[in-house]
Amino acid sequence: MSKLSHLDDKGQAHMVDVSDKAVTSRSATARARMLAQAATIALIRDGAAKKGDVLATARIAGIAAAKKTSDLIPLCHPLMISKASVEFALNADSIDVEATVKVEGKTGVEMEALTACSIACLTIYDMLKAVDRGMRITDLRLVEKTGGKSGTFKAE
Fold first, then answer.
1. Of 49, 60, 124, 138, whose CB neighbour count within 10 A is largest?
2. Which residues pair with 102 in a beta bridge?
3. Which residue out of 96, 126, 132, 139 is catalytically annotated?
4. Domains of the chain: which residue ranges?
5. Using alpha carbons only, what angle is made at residue 19 by residues 17 and 20, rounded to the nearest 5 degrees?
6. pTM higher than 0.70 for the full model?
7. What is the DSSP letter of 7?
8. Contact of 85 with 29, CB cutoff 8 Å
């Protein structure tokens, strides 16, 4: 088993030193799915949610979350993000959520993309929980990452 980069020789957690890493263009895309009742999806599609524009609010929340990832997840490096986007696809009984984050930096943005995607989903849940407490967030995962020493990853 390879050595974990966030553990020192004594097994204690520490922030990885990226001082000697090259600055490269890096990106990451994460996806999740929100399962909901068809009537809940119709509220979003029709703009009829009592709390306002669900997808616009979730998009802003996801982008803000990407920018705050290092405040939320211990040992993540603060990054000067060059792009963060959150997109939605409405289906009959679900919403597909996709977040993409880009940076020119010494470390990747996988955690930022995953955080953006998950917070966008949580925002959707918060805005619609009064009408559908049974909503579920599923399939959160990294689907692609580029740049850095490890190169490109694409999920199957």
1. 124
2. 27, 83
3. 126
4. 24-147
5. 110
6. yes
7. B
8. no
